[in-house]
Design brief:
Length: about 350
């Protein structure tokens, strides 16, 4: 069993710098998006300055929150020398990218994030999804996604300073971090293990209260749930560590939450299969018959990007069911159609 983390505030979103282990602090940062108010950044001592993991969504409010938290520790923003992102989503990556020139920060991320970073479109963040959604039988949703226009948005984005490979090491003032490839949430998602401290910086791979989206990126991989399940099992094969998630409270055991996530997806596979038995044949039809979020909302009640994510998640579950031989797949000109075996 991992050691207990240092006591945390009852409300994990409380601003400030909160110690989670000797020399390691958690900094909750504000997010400008509905439904997800906060992201956890983590600060450690590096060999030539501070190392910051997942430093948030680029904005004046975010930079102010980081600056204030670092001041509590006796540091300035200019002391940050290296930023590590667990993945390329805006709430983990864009602030670090914005700091590269003015602060000279070095930004590193997993090598397989290059598929989505290199394909980033400033006008539409989902250029490949209309075709994917049409394949799922969601033609109307595909048209709405195709019509997204973000040409007026100004978000710092582009390639990092370096790409991390599985098992790469990042030096610290004392010890090092190990980068572990955990594809699933995104193709190039990585987590960072600090074995001497007994902690795992889990990004969105292992979250304490919610399950991460699958295929919610510019260039999703063909079978994200297969990758995600493999990545969860990978962590079970490593020593257990304190869970330091990107969203939510610190947890005493990564393994315990991984087992819950695996159980959830086994149950979801059964639910999807039962809906095929009941007559659904496409990912869109299944998604419309399932409740979503803890509020158990219908698909049509969700925001557009969440509808997209829900349909792609069901397609990923159908892929696993087909891979296991529990359903059959028929490729038709209109859509992929599945039938219970």
């Amino acid at each position: 069993m991992p050691a207990n983390a240092i006591d945390q505030p009852d409300d994990w979103t409380t601003p400030g710098a909160h110690a989670v282990a000797p020399g390691i602090h958690r900094i909750p940062l504000p997010l400008p998006i509905a439904g997800l108010s906060t992201v956890n950044a983590y600060v450690l001592e590096g060999p030539d300055g501070l190392v910051l993991i997942d430093p948030g969504w680029a904005s004046p409010a975010n930079e102010h929150a980081v600056t204030a938290a670092l001041a509590e520790l006796g540091h300035r923003l200019g002391d940050v020398r290296t930023c590590l992102a667990t993945h390329h989503h805006w709430d983990h990556y864009t602030q670090a990218f914005a700091w590269r020139e003015p602060l000279g920060v070095r930004l590193l991320i997993g090598e397989n994030e290059r598929f989505s970073i290199d394909g980033f479109d400033t006008t539409n963040p989902f250029p490949n999804h209309p075709e994917l959604l049409a394949r799922c039988g969601a033609d109307e949703l595909a048209e709405r996604v195709l019509a997204i226009d973000m040409s007026g948005a100004e978000t710092p984005y582009g390639p990092p300073d370096g790409w991390l490979r599985d098992n790469d090491r990042i030096p610290l003032a004392a010890g090092e971090l190990e980068a572990i490839a955990t594809p699933g949430h995104t193709r190039g998602h990585v987590v960072y293990a600090h074995s001497p401290a007994g902690v795992l910086f889990a990004g969105d791979h292992v979250l304490p209260r919610i399950t991460p989206s699958l295929g919610f990126e510019v260039a999703p991989e063909p079978a994200p749930l297969r990758s995600y399940i493999s990545s969860l099992k990978l962590l079970l094969g490593r020593p257990d560590q304190v869970l330091l998630p990107a969203h939510g409270a610190v947890g005493p055991s990564t393994h315990a939450r991984v087992r819950e996530l695996l159980d959830h997806h086994r149950e979801r596979l059964d639910e999807v299969n039962e809906l095929l038995v009941a007559g659904a044949t496409t990912a869109y039809e299944v998604a419309r018959r399932l409740p979503w979020t803890r509020h158990r909302r219908q698909l049509d009640a969700l925001q557009l990007e969440h509808q997209l994510s829900a349909v792609m998640e069901i397609e990923a579950h159908l892929d696993v069911l087909a891979h296991l031989g529990r359903v059959t797949l028929e490729e038709t000109p209109a859509a992929r159609r599945y039938n219970a075996a």
